[in-house]
Structure formats: C-alpha cells, structure tokens
UniProtKB/TrEMBL annotation:
Enzyme Commission no: 1.1.1.100
Keyword Oxidoreductase found: yes
Keywords tagged on the record: Oxidoreductase
Protein's name in the database: 3-oxoacyl-ACP reductase FabG
Species this protein is from: Alicyclobacillus fastidiosus
C-alpha cells in the first residue's frame, strides 16, 4: 500500500486508461476522486473500486471548462483538506489529414488535451505549493513526436510535454514532482475505434507484440505517485512496449 492516506484526482476516469489508473491508485491505498463528464461511467469506476474495498468518489467535471475544474478542486479540498496526486488523463482525438483538418477539430482537441491539462495543473500547483508536497502526472502520447493524421492531437500532446517540464521546474522547490507518461498503443475505446487493418499495422509496430493494457500505464503511474519517486521530475516516460511511431 504505497499510497495509503493519499488523496488522488484522476481526470477522464470513467473508462479506458483513466479507469485503470483510478483502480490501481485505490489498490495502493489512495482515496480516489473519479472525475469524468459521464456520471454513469464515473460511478462505474467508483463501484469497481468499492468492490475491491477501496475508497472513491465521483465528481462530474469537464476539464475544458475552467469553472468546472475550479469547482472540482474546491470540492476535494472541502472534503479532504489535501490533494496529493493529480493525474491528468482526460483526452480526446479528432483525427484527420492536415489538409482536411477543420478548425473545429483543431480547437476541440487543444481545448480538452492541452487547455484542460493546464487548468488542472494550475489548480494543483496553487494547492501543492502550500502543502509542500505533490505529484502531478500528465498523460501525453507517443504521438507528440508527430503522427500522420494527428496534427491536432500531436500538437496538444507536445504542448502537454512543454507544460510538464515547465511546471516541474517551477514546483521542484516545493517538493512537487511533475512528469508525463507517453502511452504507445493501449487497448481502449480510443484505439478500438480504428479499422481492424490499422489495428494490425499498429500492433505490428510494437516489439512486445501486443497492444498495452490500461494496467501497464497505471503501474508506472503508481510508482511516480509514490514517495519512492520523490527525486523523479520533468521526465517523459514511454509506456509502449518498445513502440516508436
Ligand atoms: P478513452 O477510452 O476515449 O477515454 C477517455 C476518457 O476521458 C473518457 O472517460 C472520457 O469521458 C474522458 N474525457 C474526455 N473528454 C473529457 C473532458 N473534457 N473532461 C473530462 N473527461 C473527459 O481514451 P483512453 O485511450 O483511455 O485515453 C486516455 C488518455 O490517454 C488520453 O489523454 C489519451 O490521449 C491518452 N493516450 C491514449 C493512448 C491509447 O493508445 N489509448 C495512447 C496514447 C495516449 P467520456 O466518457 O465522457 O467521453
């Protein structure tokens, strides 16, 4: 139980990687605030945690809305008086080749993936500076290095890397670490949306020979959230079975 007594917020925790992270942090002893837009999904994660004897609580929040994010952090502070771990996982893709990409597709992805992460990192920074403790983990993507059909998504995730490294440097003296994880190709609704042929091509690029599972990402996050990782900050860690895009 590496995270006993800690309070964690996980955004986009209603399904996919976010649910895997929330369940893992709860297994490690954290009290988990499950944040998502769809209450039914978020409550499903809370139930999955409760069935294993963990403590979790659902709070609806659209990370792209700064007022929603402020309300989320305020509610958690009112309830627990501390926020030790924030995992910024909420994310979307709206893929398209550059010459066809609409401004709407661009804006939607930047607003959720980058601006949404910014809102949460900013709220976390205000609280964690005063606590003199914190762990912020941002979910970027292997695509941040560039990926065909994902100009908007890659740009948003490259932005998350820059945000991570800056926040890490600003907050280091307050004993707050900030790191980014770059999942490779993980088996979730996001990737299941691709045609079977593309799925096979993607898995063919993975030296480990399989798509990752949400637990593969969650295990690394549990370490970064722990006291053992107190000297690890400003890092960008790939969790992709050796995949390079
Ligand atoms: P997913 O299965 O599509 O789940 C995304 C979750 O984020 C959903 O619960 C969704 O809620 C929530 N969400 C979306 N927009 C939100 C918003 N504005 N506010 C709050 N929650 C929001 O995706 P995933 O594969 O688990 O991906 C999770 C993260 O990992 C994302 O940041 C993604 O970019 C990143 N990632 C994934 C892969 C991969 O291979 N799967 C690879 C690299 C990086 P709703 O149910 O309300 O839509």
């Amino acid at each position: 139980m590496r995270l006993g007594g800690k309070v964690a917020i996980v955004t986009g925790a209603g399904r996919g990687i976010g649910r895997g992270i929330a369940v893992k942090l709860a297994q490690e002893g954290a009290k988990v605030v499950v944040c998502d837009m769809v209450a039914e999904n978020g409550e499903g994660t809370v139930r999955a945690i409760a069935e294993q004897g963990g403590e979790a609580w659902f709070q609806g929040c659209n990370v792209a809305d700064d007022k929603d994010v402020s309300a989320l952090f305020r509610a958690v502070m009112e309830r627990y008086s501390a926020i030790d771990i924030v995992v910024n996982n909420a994310g979307i893709n709206r893929d398209g080749m550059l010459h066809k990409l609409t401004l709407e597709q661009w804006d939607q992805v930047i607003r959720v993936n980058l601006t949404g992460t910014f809102h949460c990192v900013q709220e976390a920074a205000k609280i964690m500076r005063n606590q003199n403790f914190g762990r912020i983990i941002n979910i970027a993507s292997a695509s941040w290095l560039g990926n065909i059909g994902q100009a908007n998504y890659a740009a948003s995730k490259a932005g998350v890397v820059g945000l991570t490294k800056t926040a890490a440097r600003e907050l280091a003296k307050y004993n707050v670490t900030v790191n980014a994880i770059c999942p490779g190709f993980i088996d979730t609704d996001m990737t299941r949306g691709v045609p079977e042929k593309v799925w096979d091509v993607m898995v063919g690029k993975i030296p480990m020979g399989r798509a990752g599972q949400p637990e593969d990402v969650a295990n690394v996050i549990a370490f970064l959230a722990s006291d053992e990782a107190g000297y690890v900050t400003a890092e960008v860690i790939n969790v992709g079975g050796g995949m390079v895009l």
